[in-house]
Amino acid sequence: MAGHGADEHPHGADRLCEAGDRVYSRAVRRGRLPRREAERVPCLMELALLHPDPDDMDWLVPTSPQEVMTRLLRGMYDEVRASQRRVGSAVAAFEWYAGLGRQVPAPGGASEGPAIRVLDGLARIQAAMDEATQACTTEVLTVQPGGIRREAELSEGLHRAMALRGRGVRMRDLYTHVARHGHGLLSYLELMGGAVEARTLDEVIERLILFDRTVAFIPANAERTMALELRHPALVEYLGTVFERLWRLAIPLTAPLPDTGIEGISHREQSIAALLAEGHQDAVIAERLGISVRTCRAHIARLSETLGAASRTQLGVRIAQTGLDGARPPVVIPPGRGSPTAR
Fold it and tell me: Is 197 left (phi over 0), alpha (psi -120 to 50) or beta?
């Protein structure tokens, strides 16, 4: 019976099958039920949700929902504790292996650091960046997501940028299109002169800083209070290739964004339409484009108005009809022939 039940009902008490849900609910409402009514849901007995009535073995009584919830919470707590122990063990093992790595001399007698180094804390990140800046001689590649760059962010790395400029290092920066609207970025580029070239895309990858194609820095957590310093040649080469491909797709900051071909729809709204067509939620779209959720929803509202859509479902249809989903070049159907742009 136990084996059969496991095959027919492979679940736990946290996700009952439809039949089990129905029978258990009936048992709770009635206080007990005949054993024959539970024969087709052996999972309830296996999970101890039903048990024999000591006064009459032909009947089954339910375990109270409160007890089941307590049992589930206890199980979740045990799982969390076990996960914490596994994470602790993994961290300890990582530190041990990292310590061994520092004892192995680099090939050819070079004095390079470890292939991957975890930088915990802004002070350590800044120190490592300053060290890489001092050693840099040819180029710096950066990817800067997040929309408009704040003055404080630009000022934070200004001393490094000026030092690089003084040594004739070439710098190339990738931003999202939203960054074009920031006065701080324009002032920064004017200050740097021809030492920095900037381009923009609808969306970019997470932050990346690459020095001389030998060392790269990427975030290690969402708050960016931890970073990874990468010196493994294969990893650094891969990140450099990713940057170059994005760079070829990007639009120079000095050039205007291409027209969408549809009156009343901006380039940003075209990007939002394409992400909506992929099924992304507003918050995800806002994060990927470097704008606030409120701004994103304002653009979606304008899209709906321009395309004559009364609901999100209808908006999706209109996006596909006009080609804003990226499946084909945008087209505008002449007004009067079912055009989504017709008022």
Answer: beta
